[in-house]
Amino acid sequence: MSPNDKALAAALDRLGAAIAAGDLSQRCPPFPGNAEADALATRINELLDQVQHQASAPYAPIRDTLRTLAGGNWTVSAPSAPEGPARQLSGEVDAVIRQVNQTLYQLREATSDASNAIRDVSSSSNSLASGATTQASAIEEISSSMDEMTRQTKKNAENAAKANQLASEAGELAGRGDEHMKSMLQAMQEIDNASKSISKIIKVIDEIAF
Questions:
Q1: pLDDT averaged over consecutive 10-residue blocks of the chain (210 residues)?
Q2: How many CB atoms lie within 10 A of CB 28?
Q3: Which alpha helices (DSSP H) does 21-84 contain, by range?
Q4: For tag attachment on the chain, is the N or C end more exposed, with fewer CB atoms within 10 Å?
Q5: Closest Cα to residue 26, out of 57, 54, 58, 51?
């Protein structure tokens, strides 16, 4: 066996092992020094190209769908495929699309509920804040009223103390007035007695003169 034949046999062995493993991407190398071997390698490569194309054709629509999904568009569905692994893969891809769309719908619903809850909480917070402001204003008014009441009570206490002092002074003055009144009554009584004595004297003088 010539070296070219050995090289062709080795290349075919490697190619056969790759095909058996499911790898259709391997190709025979060229044999520029051997026209027959080179032609055979070219023919084998063309045959492998056709086989690879026929094998990958059912998966082309699925591949396009996966690229669309990778771009963020989940509104598509997996295309139908002929019998075999391609159809099974298409069904699995379609199931994944449905599951993802259902999950996205649930997320949108949850997000909408969360947004509504946040709006309710915000509205309640605003109401609480308004109520707190009103209560603070009422408390401030009550505090101001209590301060005014404290001042008025203090003033009333001062006025009561003054009134008590005035009442005490009035009592003292009343006592003094009573004493003066008694003295005046006594003086008037003495004057009346003196008047009576004078009247008697005048009467005696008149009698004597008569």
A1: 72 82 83 84 85 72 77 78 71 79 80 80 74 75 75 76 71 71 76 74 72
A2: 19
A3: 35-56, 60-70
A4: C
A5: 51
